[in-house]
Design a protein that fits this description.
This protein is of the alpha/beta class. Helix content is 49%, strand content 9%. Keywords: Arsenical resistance.
């Protein structure tokens, strides 16, 4: 049964999810059947509903996250052609370090790298101080939201960067794992966030150089 925690009646949520399934089934035609698309859409909605602290616009977020998950599933199964390396950043809540790292790498990469982020225990919202610190560098973070760690995103990643999430990330052979000892910016004033941002930025630039040499 469809949950109503995004404030909409159950029937309206169901209709929105059906529309998302229709759109993604068209987008992934020839890669996945409609049943697979529907399974991932409904599972994605349930995951976001379970982990989200702010449960508004869940259907909209479901459309974006389900598309990323299906894209990664296709890559992991060799059903779609992969042309650039993919990097996954993981922290605990996916509102601080991993979001900053993903936004900075995406900003510098200009499409040369695919970027994902996730949380081992995603919750909360991205603090204004983090959004503001990135905005100072011309890096927008207005559409980002915390996402749970899923199997296909780890399978697809060429490099997995963990930042304070312990042993939550599954380990697969053939991948490069990095653990960055970076301070947590969450709850800090922007004056304290800036040096953390700059530390992450230096690490991201170095990683990008390694991946694109």
């Amino acid at each position: 049964m469809v949950n109503t925690t995004d404030g909409l009646p159950a029937r309206e949520v169901a209709l929105q999810l059906d529309r998302i399934v229709d759109e993604l089934a068209d987008k992934f035609h020839g890669v996945f059947g409609r049943e697979t698309v529907e399974q991932y859409v409904r599972e994605t909605y349930a995951l976001l509903d379970e982990h989200a602290s702010i449960k508004t616009h869940l259907a909209t977020l479901t459309a974006r996250f389900a598309q990323d998950r299906l894209t990664d599933l296709g890559k992991s199964q060799g059903l779609t052609h992969v042309t650039v390396p993919q990097v996954l950043f993981i922290c605990v809540h996916n509102v601080g370090r991993s979001q900053m790292a993903a936004a900075l790498l995406d900003h510098h990469a200009f499409g040369r790298v695919t970027v994902r982020s996730a949380g081992s225990q995603p919750s909360g919202r991205i603090p204004d101080e983090i959004v503001g610190a990135l905005y100072e560098l011309g890096v927008p973070l207005t559409s980002a939201f915390p996402k749970p760690l899923t199997d296909e995103v780890v399978r697809t990643a060429d490099v997995v960067v963990t930042m304070g999430c312990g042993d939550a990330c599954p380990v697969y052979p053939g991948k490069r794992y990095l653990d960055w000892d970076v301070a947590d910016p969450t709850g800090k004033p922007i004056e304290a966030v800036r040096p953390i941002r700059d530390d992450i930025d230096r690490r991201v630039r170095h990683l990008l150089d390694e991946l694109t040499d």
